[in-house]
Amino acid sequence: MNHLKNSLLQMDRKSYKAYKQIAGSYTYPRYTLHIDYVQGDPFASPSRIRVVIPEQERHVAAEWLKTKARRIAVEDAFARVISKALKHNKFFIKGSGKSGMIAFDGPGQEILERTAVSITEKEITVCLSVGLPANGRSINGKEAVKLFNEVIPALLENSAFQILDKDIQQSVQLADQQEAIWKAMKENKWVSFIANSSILPRESGVSDLPSEGAVAFKSPPEDEVELELPHGKIVKGMAVKQGVTLITGGGYHGKSTLLQAIERGVYPHCKGDGREFICTDPSAVKIRAEDGREISSVNISPFISNLPHGKDTTSFSTTNASGSTSQAANVMEALEIGAETLLIDEDTSATNFMIRDSRMQKLIDHKNEPITPFIHRIRQLVNEADKSVILITGGSGDYFAVADTVILMEEYKPKNVTSKAKEIIKEDPIAHSNVEPADFTNLKNRQLSASTFPKQADRRFKIQAKGQFQILFGKEPITFAYTEQLVDPSQTRLIAEIIQYLYRNAGKNFSSFEALIQHIDDKMEQGLEKLTKSNGKHPGDLARPRKNEIAAVLNRMRTGKFLMK
After folding, report:
1. Distance CA 307, CA 371 (A)
2. Farthest CA pair distance, the chain
3. Per-residue pLDDT tens digits for 462-509
4. Nearest to 341 by CA among 400, 300, 298, 382
5. CA-CA distance, 151 to 162, in Å (whole number)?
6. Contact status, residue 404 vs residue 243, Cβ threshold 8 Å
7. Residue 396: predicted pLDDT
8. What is the pLDDT of residues 149-177, one digit of tens each?
9. So what's the pLDDT on residue 427?
10. CA–CA distance, 392 with 388 (Å, rounded to integer)
């Protein structure tokens, strides 16, 4: 610590690049400071540092790390108090550019595996980014000493060293309870569970915090179940069974709000979020139309075939998909990666993909209509491919005929109206269309072509995340704004690192695209830094995405090419 202080004072007013000399490790009274990367300019990306706190300075009980879910919950608990302390930081560092800036990858409402805090039985590692102080382009040594010897120690004292064991224990217990819900779902063949008293609406379109004064969720009696969770917790709520669940109701009565809570239920949520006990099949994928997206060699023939001029749809490619072709591709790509549950909202669907009424069927001969609507495939998906669908609709009662459960939302309160819906279908049956069966079980294997990536010799080629929904692949943007279950920019940064990893290992052969995605998931299971070139240093601000979102981004690479095996 004293060596760093003296070095910084000696550097005062020297060229900013002299800061490079401070890279290394420094011993402080309660932790070790590692300066892994030093910025070359006060306006450049900030420097990266790690603080390593030994177990004897901040005890971490072995039982808190007993399972992976517990460890992630404990790391999340530390990350939240650090993020909160940083927001209340009252120190001010003088200087130009990013002088004195301290950045920490704090969590949102979801509890994600992150590199921001990592905990073992021996130590706690906290990753920060700091702007080294400057006057113009000269070193401000005195302010740098203040940064390292006052600001950062105070930040840690008010967070990592102050968090109470009882607060950590609460996070651990919540993780156990959420894991127990997912286990019960699997045993009982449910695809989602929404606890009573959950708060579904969010504060606003730009805030993911719970809405004050919102109507609390209450399960219909027919669908209510009771679960005994660990640590003496008993919770009641709505169990969404496998099969086809239709959620309907008038406009603004909470249909889409319920679906949004279900789609976010693939992640655990923090205490106080209102959705702590909403859990969804972890493989569930939100499906929507996506005009203009890239499609590479996808078999969309179960939904679209017999195109004019004989265009093949068993290996369909386009750089500018229509609403129906994009939604068909989204379904087939989700199935390819192993999605067991599809989540669909009619508001974001292509009408001609979802339904074609009896009058239109009479007017247009099925031989001249290349689209087989989703309504004619949904039972086959369930009965033969063993998939489930949760569908929001307020405009088409034809889906009553194919639904196992129908939930009516009235003023944010759900009612089970399955019997009534079935009676309506009996009174006014829909005309059945004879369509050829499709094969959803034997999907053709696609492979990522090595030609996707430029030659390694091109040093100008870079892959970097730009916000939450874009990655620059060299000069080509990969955009995925409609990938709604990607919830954190740090997930996007890790996907950019994954593409970098594939770029470095472009020569590797995988039997299928699914095998490639599974390889990436296995790497993440070993540690997020395994996909980076950090070599034990600050890996960057990264959070783990699901396989589904990784695949979604790769499927939208305009420069990428998939080959059918």
Report:
1. 9
2. 89
3. 899 999 999 999 888 999 999 999 999 999 999 999 999 998 887 677
4. 382
5. 16
6. yes
7. 83
8. 999 999 999 999 999 999 999 999 999 99
9. 87
10. 14
Report H helices in 337-414: 351-354, 358-363, 378-383
Residues 6+ apart with CB under 8 A from 432: none
Question: In 185-252, at which residue ranges do the beta strands (DSSP E only) sit?
Answer: 190-195, 202-204, 207-210, 224-229, 233-241, 244-249
Statement: residue 48 has pLDDT above 60: yes
Return the closest-CA partner of residue 341 out of 416, 273, 286: 286
* Burial grade of 236 (CB within 10 A; 0-12, 13-18, 19 or more): middle
Residue for token pair 């007013």: 13
Phi-psi region of 47 (alpha: psi -120 to 50; beta: other; left: phi over 0): beta
Q: Which tokens hold the place of 112?
A: 């994600």
For residue 260, the one-letter residue type is Q
Task: Judge if pTM exceeds 0.70.
Answer: yes
Per-residue pLDDT of 60-106, as tens digits, reads: 999 999 999 999 999 999 999 999 999 998 888 999 999 999 999 99
Whether the CB-CB separation of 279 and 181 falls below 8 Å is answered with yes
33 touches 22 (CB < 8 A): no
| Res 121: pLDDT | 95
Vertex 142 angle, CA 138 and 144, to 5°? 75
**Closest to 551 measured CA to CA, from 348, 324, 298, 376:** 298
